[in-house]
């Protein structure tokens, strides 16, 4: 990148508000080593269990370029550094604005006053998340005249806040390299988001799931072409068409024992294999064991995928939504190309122009999706804004795709993902334009998405958060960005966790640093959250939530709360909190993770099933 040298964060340097952006100069990223890298098991133990040593080694040797240090780019950077890649370059050409305080959790008011470059402002805060990751920043212009040859040193390029025409150019460059550089782009416009992946013509994945091979007990195999295998006691096999199985311990149809067969799913309880007509009749017994085989994924370039998109359906209640949003987003890209700006909030003329562009663009797409007027209208209305929880979700997915790209583990996204929060605005009916206009404070980006009335409701909420682990830290960060519990007369976040911080927590619980080890999670998390938003009113406790503490968390306490949120790691505690919420008619939000899987559940009294009413609880 001619004309600018990336700035590298000094490891171990105090990252105070006044020191962000200062650092030593490092002109070259280290070459990707071929020797084995020692993995700090005390830090990465949980992640190592999920990914395995091979993937961890690949991550520890990978270099990633990330452009755009808005709220979405920062989420991705935070996740990648916590995960433990080798080196990350963060790029941005914009100066910090008051608007950014409501979207970027590593900026402070001094950065805005000093008009620091966004990448330089957050550099040290990102770097201190993980001393094993080499983090540098760059602020040179990235445009049509930029020589892209500097990208050849990276294994993956991630773009945010880059116009579509230039995304195409960078994507073409990444594909021209040997091996191709993995390409990811992500954007958020108000309550709408887009994620695109291109890992080259042939991308081999060694393990698509990361799970132990499945074993299926057999009750019957037909003599037919193809032979149909039925699971014992109609237990679901949870297999996918195209997978391979080996067979053993079959009585009767012994010719299958030791053989490997590719299967086609017939039903949740049966699957077909090859021709079994020449084999002996099946008698009883038998086990089919899944065989892990490499799988090659074929990606198409961005230019082609724009007109022939392969979209993942995120919400099966709205299968038509991805293509509708795709055409609307392309119209927004064209609008920005034409006018060098986004549509103005509530501007009827801009909305009509966006609708014309969407109609025209839809006709050029392979499937010619019908234009959804409501999607286009709300995209035009909210495009100026930014919804922090949406950034957390999309940033998490985008980061996971980067890890897939550099490790070759887990099935990648093929190739578009659209996530939206339209339900929020659909409940508003026909709001007044003034509701969404900026007021000159840190919540303007949020206000442009949901209106001032909802912003005030968030500020006046009383929230009880149980647990300050990985999910709890993310919740607190989102509360701070949303202004939850910041009302002048009402609103409070109460958080409790009896645990102390351990080194293994630092890999996932981003509010904690090495010097916090053996300090209380709740107090430390509360202090860190106040640095994100000093207006937050937060009360931190060290108590367990259990029958022994009902003198503290009594009925009066629960009835004062608007929402109870659990970020727990065991079923027993969830059951207890659910019983207290049910007794006091309080809504409960529950979340949990296990490896690469997660769940979240909204439990509302007299409307949904309670947690204790589940036939079977989530496993995490």
TrEMBL record:
Residues 225-292 form the Ubiquitin-activating enzyme E1 FCCH domain. InterPro entries: E1_4HB, E1_FCCH, E1_FCCH_sf, ThiF/MoeB/HesA, ThiF_NAD_FAD-bd, Ub-E1_IAD_1, Ubiquitin-activating_enz, UBQ-activ_enz_E1. GO terms for cellular component: cytoplasm; SUMO activating enzyme complex. Residues 1-32 are annotated as: Disordered. Pathway: Protein modification; protein ubiquitination. Gene3D superfamilies: NAD(P)-binding Rossmann-like Domain, Ubiquitin-activating enzyme E1, FCCH domain, Ubiquitin-activating enzyme E1, inactive adenylation domain, subdomain 1, Ubiquitin-activating enzyme E1, inactive adenylation domain, subdomain 2. It is an enzyme of class 6 (ligase). Keywords: ATP-binding, Ligase, Nucleotide-binding, Ubl conjugation pathway. Residues 293-361 form the Ubiquitin-activating enzyme E1 four-helix bundle domain. It comes from the Eukaryota. Its EC number is 6.2.1.45. PANTHER family: UBIQUITIN-ACTIVATING ENZYME E1, UBIQUITIN-LIKE MODIFIER-ACTIVATING ENZYME 6. This is E1 ubiquitin-activating enzyme.
């Amino acid at each position: 990148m001619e004309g600018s040298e990336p700035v590298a964060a000094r490891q171990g340097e105090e990252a105070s508000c006044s020191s962000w952006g200062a650092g030593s100069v490092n002109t070259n990223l280290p070459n990707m080593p071929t020797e084995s890298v020692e993995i700090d098991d005390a830090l990465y133990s949980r992640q190592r269990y999920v990914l395995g040593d091979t993937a961890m080694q690949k991550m520890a040797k990978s270099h990633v370029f990330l452009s755009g240090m808005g709220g979405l780019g920062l989420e991705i950077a935070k996740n990648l550094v916590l995960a433990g890649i080798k080196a990350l370059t963060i790029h941005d050409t914009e100066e910090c604005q008051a608007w950014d305080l409501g979207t970027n959790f590593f900026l402070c008011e001094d950065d805005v006053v000093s008009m620091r470059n966004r990448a330089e402002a957050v550099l040290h805060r990102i770097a201190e998340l993980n001393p094993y990751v080499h983090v540098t920043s760059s602020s040179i212009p990235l445009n049509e005249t930029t020589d892209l040859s500097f990208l050849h040193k990276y294994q993956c390029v991630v773009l945010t806040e880059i116009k579509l025409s230039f995304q195409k150019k960078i994507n073409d460059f990444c594909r021209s390299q040997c091996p191709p550089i993995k390409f990811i782009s992500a954007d958020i416009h108000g309550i709408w988001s887009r994620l695109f992946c291109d890992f080259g013509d042939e991308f081999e994945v060694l393990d698509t799931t990361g799970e132990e091979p499945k074993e299926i007990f057999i009750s019957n195999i037909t003599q037919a072409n193809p032979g149909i295998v039925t699971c014992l006691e109609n237990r679901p096999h949870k297999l996918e068409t195209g997978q391979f199985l080996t067979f053993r311990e079959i009585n009767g149809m012994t010719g299958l024992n030791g053989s490997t067969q590719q299967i086609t799913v017939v039903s949740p309880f049966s699957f077909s294999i090859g021709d079994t007509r020449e084999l002996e009749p099946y008698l009883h017994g038998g086990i089919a064991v899944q065989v892990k085989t490499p799988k090659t994924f074929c990606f198409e370039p961005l230019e082609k995928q724009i007109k022939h998109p392969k979209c993942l359906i995120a919400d099966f209640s709205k299968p038509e939504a991805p293509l509708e949003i795709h055409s609307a987003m392309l119209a927004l890209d064209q609008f920005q190309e034409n006018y060098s700006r986004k549509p103005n909030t509530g501007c009827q003329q801009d909305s009509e122009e966006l609708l014309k562009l969407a109609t025209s663009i839809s006709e050029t797409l392979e499937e010619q999706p019908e234009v959804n007027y409501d999607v286009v209208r709300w995209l035009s209305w909210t495009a100026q804004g930014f919804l922090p929880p949406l950034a957390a979700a999309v940033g998490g997915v985008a980061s996971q795709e980067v890890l897939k790209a550099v490790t070759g583990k887990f099935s990648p996204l093929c190739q578009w993902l659209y996530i939206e929060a339209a339900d929020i605005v659909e409940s508003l009916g026909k709001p007044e334009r003034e509701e969404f206009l900026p007021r000159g404070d840190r919540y303007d980006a949020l206000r442009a998405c949901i209106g001032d009335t909802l912003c005030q409701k968030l500020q006046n909420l009383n929230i009880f958060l149980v647990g300050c682990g990985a999910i709890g830290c993310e919740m607190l960060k989102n509360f701070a960005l949303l202004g939850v519990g910041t009302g002048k007369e009402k609103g409070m976040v109460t958080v409790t966790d009896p645990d102390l911080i351990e080194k293994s927590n630092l890999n996932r619980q981003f509010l904690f640093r090495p010097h916090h080890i053996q300090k209380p999670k709740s107090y430390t998390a509360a202090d860190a959250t106040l640095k994100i938003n000093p207006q937050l009113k937060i009360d931190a406790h060290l108590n367990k939530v259990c029958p022994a503490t009902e003198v503290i968390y009594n009925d009066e306490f629960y009835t004062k709360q608007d929402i109870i949120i659990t970020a727990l790691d065991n079923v027993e505690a969830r059951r207890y909190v659910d019983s207290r919420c049910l007794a006091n008619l309080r809504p409960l939000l529950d979340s949990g993770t296990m490896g690469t899987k997660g769940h979240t559940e909204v439990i509302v009294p007299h409307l949904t099933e309670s947690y204790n009413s589940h036939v079977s609880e989530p496993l995490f």
